[in-house]
Amino acid sequence: MQVFDAALLALGGLAAGAINTLAGGGSLLTVPLLGITGLPLPVANGTNRVGVLLGSATATWRLAAEGAPGLREAAPLLVPTALGALVGARLVVELPAEWFERIFGVVMLVLLVPTLRSSQPPPASAAAARAAPPPRAPLSPAARFAAFAAIGVYGGAFQAGVGILLITVLSLSGVDLVRSTQIKTALNTCFTLLTLPVFYLAGQIAWAPALVLGAGFAAGAALGARLAVRGGARVIRPVLAVAVVALAGRMLGLY
After folding, report:
1. CA end-to-end distance (rounded Å), the chain
2. What one-character-per-residue DSSP string does 6-71 give?
3. Collapsed DSSP state (helix, strand, coil) of residue 1
4. Is-contact 227 18, C-beta < 8 A?
5. 203 in helix, strand or coil?
6. Are 134 and 126 in contact (CB under 8 A)?
7. What is the DSSP string of 231-251?
8. CA–CA separation, 167 and 175 (whole Å)
9. 7-11, 20-24, 81-85: which has the minimum mean pLDDT?
């Protein structure tokens, strides 16, 4: 790997790590960058997971260290998202995804307004989020399992924007954005770790670019975690809005 390619991936990972922590969609930047370095798209998709794993793990750790709540609420959601992610990862190594991506782009645009205008004003900081009681989920246990399993399928298959979808569903359930951010990063860490062997066995991971990208992801995630906790919803909301629009436009083929 050339020095220029390594620098490109490290800087791209830095930006994507911060974006993923605050909202999601950082893979929209890093997967094309991996393609620029010469990797085929399926290999770029698999290689990117190493960066996502290191970034998500770093963000989860740093958010907890900064006092952000959410790890306890993430635990019961792990099983459906993990099962769905394993299915999605297996499907994507064999099946095309053009129609699914375009449908998902429409869904994200539809959900943008209710996500940004949550019925419950979110705490402005991690301290306020800790003081607020955990929300009660309005969905039945079966519907909740199905919803997060579906998110897992998407995350296991495409990754890009799964954080946005997780935050959207959590926000519509009344979870504040600081708490949602920690839940999202914890779930992403777990199901990315579980699905990584699927891409490895399919020969879709290039380790040298993956580790360089991962270093950037980790550094960006640490920065994003600090911004999320210190700035709270005031920082997360605008990044989330931009990420949703960018993700929808990309998946609808607008650029």
Report:
1. 28
2. HHHHHHHHHHHHHHHHHTS-THHHHHHHHHHTT--HHHHHHHHHHHHHHHHHHHHHHHHHTT---H
3. coil
4. yes
5. coil
6. no
7. HTHHHHHHHHHHHHHHHHHHH
8. 9
9. 20-24
